[in-house]
């Protein structure tokens, strides 16, 4: 190797979990879960309803207790971080957000940046509103917006928390695109991808397998609180795996764009081996 070339070093992890387990209401919800998230990675967290995705995100957000030495953020045990310090580096979008008071779009986004100069705050809010296509709702009360519009406002609030702040950055997003139309899903995931390109680490819980396939570097598939598959979209989105985990019958096609697409097969195929209820139905 020429002298002037040094081997690429793997980036130090932003988030590491070591065999974490979470019990709620006396039931194990997450078990023996270990993974690493590095700067620049967008990891999609997949799994059926009730698999434990939100529980894991809430634990990583500090809302559910896990042994603090089992989760490391930027090389330090999570328990060694002061809450106020970590809030500048880690932002979390929960699955559901209940607004306590009627507030405008601007006011909600400003909640992500409470201790900023007014001038800077308005500049950041303006930039985020433009990026997430919500500028025309700037002075509307958020409860009067549509579901997808509100979801974009909440994402803007979360992004405001880390916007232009020093690295490292971790975003934990629990279904940030579930209410969005297809064009806005693309817009939002392109924005997330740009953040990843700037070194942000993202863990994004999502149900849309094809969005995950298109945008995520890595997929982590949970079933009953355990990781049952992890890897590139091509490694995880495999018909046998999806049948075992979701009970979904599908085929998977490699697109010329470079990622696999999951195509659920018609119910008649799904039921092909079941007693002939569908086959005996009239076809005309
Ligand atoms: N406080 C609680 N007490 C008991 N069980 C709970 C509690 N909170 C969540 N659970 C259970 O934990 C399991 C995982 O829930 P979680 O919300 O993490 O799933 P999820 O993968 O995010 O699902 P979804 O895709 O529906 O959002 C579910 O079976 C849920 O009923």
CA(first)-CA(last) distance = 70 Å
The total of helices stands at 10
Q: What average pLDDT do the residues reach?
A: 90
**Which percent range describes the beta-strand content?**
15-25%
What is the C-level CATH assignment of the domain at 11-89 and 165-230? Alpha Beta
The secondary structure category is: alpha/beta
Low-confidence stretches: 268-284
The count of β-strands is: 12
Helix amount, in percent?
Answer: 25-40%
Please state the overall shape, judged from the principal axes of the Cα atoms.
Answer: globular
What ligands are attached or bound here?
A: adenosine-5'-triphosphate
Encode the helix/strand succession as letters. Answer: EEEHEEHEHHHEHEHEEHHEEH
- Superfamily (CATH H level) name of the domain at 11-89 and 165-230: P-loop containing nucleotide triphosphate hydrolases
Query: Roughly how many Å is the radius of gyration?
Result: 21 Å
CATH topology of the domain at 11-89 and 165-230: Rossmann fold
What's the main sheet like? Answer: 6 strands, mixed
CATH architecture of the domain at 11-89 and 165-230: 3-Layer(aba) Sandwich
Largest sheet: spatial strand order? 6-7-8-3-9-10
Function: Part of the ABC transporter complex HmuTUV involved in hemin import. Responsible for energy coupling to the transport system.
Domain ABC transporter: 15-249
Pfam family, one: ABC_tran
Keywords: ATP-binding, Nucleotide-binding, Translocase, Transport
């Amino acid at each position: 190797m020429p002298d002037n070339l040094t081997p690429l070093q793997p980036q130090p992890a932003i988030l590491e979990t070591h065999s974490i387990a979470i019990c709620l209401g006396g039931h194990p919800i997450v078990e023996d879960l270990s993974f690493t998230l590095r700067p620049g990675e967008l990891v999609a967290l997949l799994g059926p309803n009730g698999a434990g995705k939100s529980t894991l995100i809430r634990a990583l957000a500090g809302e559910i207790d896990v042994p603090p030495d089992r989760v490391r953020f930027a090389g330090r045990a999570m328990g060694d971080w002061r809450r106020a310090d970590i809030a500048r580096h880690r932002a979390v979008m929960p699955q559901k957000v209940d607004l306590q008071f009627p507030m405008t779009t601007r006011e909600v986004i400003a909640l992500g940046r409470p201790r900023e100069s007014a001038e800077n705050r308005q500049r950041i809010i303006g930039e985020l509103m433009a990026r997430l296509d919500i500028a025309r709702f700037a002075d509307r009360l958020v409860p009067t917006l549509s579901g997808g519009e509100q979801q974009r406002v909440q994402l803007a609030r979360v992004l405001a928390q880390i916007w232009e702040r020093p690295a490292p950055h971790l975003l934990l997003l629990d279904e940030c695109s579930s209410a969005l139309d297809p064009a806005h899903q693309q817009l939002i995931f392109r924005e997330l991808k740009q953040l990843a390109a700037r070194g942000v680490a993202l863990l994004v819980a999502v149900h849309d397998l094809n969005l995950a396939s298109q945008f995520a570097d890595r997929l982590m598939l949970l079933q009953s609180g355990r990781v049952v598959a992890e890897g590139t979209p091509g490694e995880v989105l495999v018909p046998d795996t999806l049948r075992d985990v979701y009970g979904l019958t599908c085929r998977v096609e490699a697109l010329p764009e470079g990622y696999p697409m999951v195509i659920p097969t018609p119910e008649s195929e799904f039921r092909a081996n079941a007693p002939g209820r569908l086959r005996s139905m009239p076809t005309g």
